[in-house]
Amino acid sequence: MVTAIEVSNISKxxxxxxxxxxxxxVVWLAKGRKGxxxxxxxxxxxxxxxxxxxxxxxxxxxNGSGKSTLLKHISGVMLPDSGTVKTRGxxxxxxxxxxxxxxxxxxxxxxxxxxxILGMTEQQVKDRFDDIVEFSEIGQFIDTEVKFxxxxxxxxxxxxxxxxxxxxxxxxxxxxxxxxxxxxxxxxGKIQELARDGKTLVVVSHDLDLVSRxxxxxxxxxxxxxxxxxxxEEAVALLRS
Amino acid sequence: xxxxxxxxxxxxGLGGGLRDIKQSGFLLKLLVRKELxxxxxxSVLGLLWSYVKPGVQFVVFYVALGIxxxxxxxxxxxxxxxxxxxxxxxxxxxxxxFSEALxxxxxxIVMNGNLIKKIYLPRELFPVASVWVSAVHFFPQLVVLVVxxxxxxxxxxxxxxxxxxxxxxxxxxxxxxLGLLFGAxxxxxxxxxxxxxxxxxxxxxxxPVMYAWSMVEQKLGSTAFAIYxxxxxxxxxxxxxxxFWFPTxxxxxxxxxxxxxxxxxxxxxxxxxxxxxxxxxxxxxxxxFAQEL
Lengths: 241, 293
Fold this sequence. Notes:
The structure holds 2 protein chains of 2 kinds.
Chain A: E1 3-15, H1 22-30, E2 40-52, E3 56-60, H2 67-75, E4 82-88, E5 91-95, H3 107-117, H4 122-136, H5 151-163, E6 169-173, H6 181-196, E7 200-204, H7 208-214, E8 217-222, E9 225-231, H8 232-240
Parallel strand pairs in A: 3-7, 3-8, 5-6, 6-7
Antiparallel strand pairs in A: 1-2, 1-4, 8-9
Chain B: E1 9-10, H1 19-23, H2 25-39, H3 49-68, H4 84-111, H5 113-118, H6 125-151, H7 158-188, H8 191-205, H9 213-220, H10 222-230, H11 232-245, H12 259-286, H13 289-292
Helix pairs in contact in B: 2-6, 3-4, 4-6, 4-7, 4-8, 4-11, 6-7, 7-8, 7-11, 7-12, 11-12
């Protein structure tokens, strides 16, 4: 087995109260740094997870348990305060679909832009363009500005771009509930297909039934600490209890 | 299992700085195209605004400074600058390029905060894309300038054309470096963008755009003038004057001393240092962009 993701002993602190102006900071410095400029809390504390290539892992936990933060560390959006994160191969995140979409651009332009943002080359986007449009079921609306799309169409197109990026490691954050029921089934089908193809998947979701269908392994976080790491059934049972 | 794992384990989120831009050429191109498409959406004149705004600015300055304040040479005012209109406009286009590039670059990280928070990509792309967009907007103004020059009897030689290129590169690099610096700082302190607005106002007047460099030398004396001259924007503007304005005159006007021997290299060095400084600061600060935005 090859390690795809290696998270060793990472901690991350967040600042609660921010100063947004230079004035406040200067006043604070002038007062001899009395008091804390900001409060801090641990979003992640000494978390270690190792994921082998081809594994399907669900990150579970209540709101604010640090699931999404962990995912952002794996994608490289955030850097840990201590500890290390290492990944092998290209990592792509389906993290909040459509983050890279611009409402004033047409669907076609957005496919190219978002594809590039997710790390595709020009040739790759061109080659996969027809598949992307077909999967999204957008059809003739592809040349309309996306601000005129219904929210379902928007998400379908965004999801479609994301699943066609073809990375080695897929990070999926709470986006499985995309579109109407038939399209949802199609998305889940696509993700299961990715899993069968041996892609590494890390999924964050509150839908326990869904993750137990897709994933084999469950990692449960609570207040930024690792509570459980093992078979998905046990992880789900732990959360339900 | 059919997994082909490529390469070694790497740490995500540690970019190679400006070097990454080369690999992301496709994305940079799309970001620039997006900005250009989105900027004038829903406006009737569209890209024509890139001509109208500097055109009006030029007319206002020309009337106020050239005619009212007597900078233009005429029969009654032999002390003025010959072809003041060309002199003025060649400086204005360069300052406009710098202002737009730096102003947008300084805001680019916060503006694209939604993306930066969610997806990892080389963040230097955003300030650099802003500078490129401004370069695209600079082009039509350059065309207008050249047309004006031709009417005024422009006959440049190769060295003069290269001087224009050098001036543009110096100012472009300066805008990139400062854009990285202020763009990153803006994430932590939103004061940064106001500071930039103020700097840009000063920059317009701290270079010989409206007036002649010789006026500064008379008032300041040689030491202070040397400091004035070391400003890369001043050097860029003077190179533009040398390229566009000087060949339209009879050649009797004095150019700043040592423009090529001393100030051109100084401008390049200062610009490179600013880019290095901007890049260094940006990399120090970018690790916490996602949580601060």
